[in-house]
Design brief:
Length: about 290
């Protein structure tokens, strides 16, 4: 299964349109028009009113447009109406704790959208959400990705949002997503660490090795690190090609394993190499 290419998802506060204009010129795969945490309560109405114009300019720039909804029911209903009117490609659901939340939104979309509805990304941000992550990940076919909201989760747990504290919950999200066949998003660290670009890059690089495929940013300076970490390097692609080529030849000779670059290669290794090649090709096609 080929997952959506969501290496970098950049939050922009929906009530400040200049950030959407700037994001349209940037390299983020997805621009998130945020109606939740980055928008003060008194600006929610204005943020919804600007969604359509902001989404249109982002679509003209060939960006995927996401809208992060509020979790509170009344505000969420207004958010959903505005996001659908704006033609959002993706809806981001915060603070999910049960599969029923996903199903409720999916049902609302089926009632309101005559054509293909926007897809969903779920944010796990509480202990209850983490404990239900496996069920949430499989709640509905419209749910295409799962992410751990590290700042909120760390706050709920009373812990620091660092590698030691977040490794276990982050891996649980990745495992739940993989089991459900959806995209594991995230990294084992704080999204707020945007001023130290080198430290952020190290966190994202290490997280990519855990199987994540993309992550969120709150500042444009984080986008390059995300795109780089979640794009297979030239060396990995070249190695993957050697693996597939050598194994194909071995199969012709009736062998089930072969040595490549000093390491044994069998079918699981080949399947991983094929996924690397497919992802590299999809990224090349999307940026050409």
């Amino acid at each position: 299964m080929q997952h959506p290419l969501w290496r970098s998802l950049l939050y922009t506060p929906a009530h400040v349109q200049k950030y959407a204009r700037k994001a349209a010129e940037g390299d983020a795969d997805v621009v998130v028009l945020d109606l939740e945490d980055s928008v003060p309560h008194q600006e929610k109405f204005a943020a919804r009113a600007l969604l359509a114009d902001s989404a249109a300019l982002l679509h003209r720039a060939r960006k995927q447009v996401a809208v992060r909804l509020n979790a509170e029911a009344a505000a969420q209903a207004e958010d959903l109406r505005a996001a659908l009117a704006a033609g959002a490609d993706i809806l981001i659901l915060p603070k999910i704790e049960t599969p029923e939340t996903v199903r409720r939104i999916a049902s609302a979309l089926a009632e309101r959208v005559p054509g293909p509805p926007p897809v969903l990304i779920g944010l796990i941000e509480t202990p209850a959400g983490l404990l239900n992550a496996a069920e949430i990940a499989m709640a509905h076919p419209l749910l295409k990705a799962l992410n751990l909201g590290t700042e909120d989760f760390a706050g709920e747990m009373g812990m620091e949002p660092d590698w030691t504290a977040l490794l276990y919950p982050s891996q649980q999200i990745a495992i739940a997503a993989r089991r459900a066949g959806i995209v594991p998003l995230g990294y084992v660290g704080s999204i707020a660490q945007f001023r130290d670009e080198d430290a952020f890059a190290r966190i994202v690089d290490a997280s990519a090795r855990l199987g994540f495929e993309g992550g969120f940013a709150i500042h444009p300076s984080q986008v390059a690190a995300l795109n780089r970490a979640f794009t297979p390097s030239e060396d990995r692609v070249a190695h993957a090609r050697r693996v597939v080529s050598a194994f194909t030849q071995a199969e012709r000779e009736g062998l089930g394993a072969v040595s490549v670059d000093g390491r044994m290669v069998d079918l699981p290794v080949v399947r991983r190499a094929e996924k690397i090649l497919a992802r590299a090709a999809a990224i090349a096609n999307s940026t050409s």
